[in-house]
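Homework help board

Subject: predicted structure for assignment chain

Our instructor gave us this sequence and asked us to write out the predicted structure in token form, then describe one feature. I got the tokens but I'm not sure how to describe them. Can anyone check?
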Amino acid sequence: MTLQPIKIFAESLGGEALWQNQKFITPNKMRGKAMGQFLKKREEKMTKKHEKTLLMKEGQDEDAYLDNAFE
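My token output:
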């Protein structure tokens, strides 16, 4: 187990901050970033799905040329 100091204060439980770890990232920020990436992927997936349904509805399937390949 290792400890990662975040801040060092002048007094025991508060006071002026003497030192602060600039590389420390809070767990909430990490979760928020992960959720943002998840939502971005999900939005891309939903957009592709919607585009495919529109293509199929119009009858312009990109892979339609394969339908006659095995006859």
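Reply (TA_rk): Your tokens look well-formed. For the description, you could write something like this. The CA atoms of residues 13 and 64 lie 70 Å apart. That's the kind of observation they're looking for.
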